[in-house]
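pinging the channel bc i need a second pair of eyes. not urgent but kinda urgent?? the chain im working w is below, pasted from the shared doc
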Amino acid sequence: MQTETLVGLISGLGGAVIGAGGALLGAWLQQRQQAKHARQERHETMARQAVDQLVTELNKLRRLVQENPSRAHRVELHEPDAWTQSLIECRDHISMAVLRLPDAELRDRINDATYVLDAGEETYESLNFRRPALGFEVDLLCREAMAALGSYLREETLPGLSRAAQRARKVRVTEQANRARYGLT
């Protein structure tokens, strides 16, 4: 075989191998990018659905607490009546929806709003806080949580914590620490 023919054959085969490798690499990179985009889209959809559910449940929680303003202190969970059962279900739906939020600070804001339902009197006393009427506190914290959800949807920075929200955060953190200390988590 002549050298020129052999060089041409090797060059042609080399070019074909390089071209095929480039095509395979391009297809692999494109597939990775599409998978990443699809994953990101799923997370965004899941977060939007969680925000929608949270706004609905926070409004429901506000209405439930406003229906029964005479219950000014801790909700009794031992033998719940229909109202308390509705409150517990609403709180549980909120807790489940919060798990789907990607933003940690936003999760904390929502948890602060609902945790006051569970906090014991001893936690308030240990912080030297006078416990406000449950309806007022939950209404205020739910409104603030919904404002934070709106900011999140609009991709704005979350609003600052009000004094009530700062207080609720201290109550939640203290109550969780007390439960952990006594093995009640």
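so The two ends are 82 Å apart (CA to CA). and The chain has six helices and no strands. — does that match what u expected or am i reading it wrong
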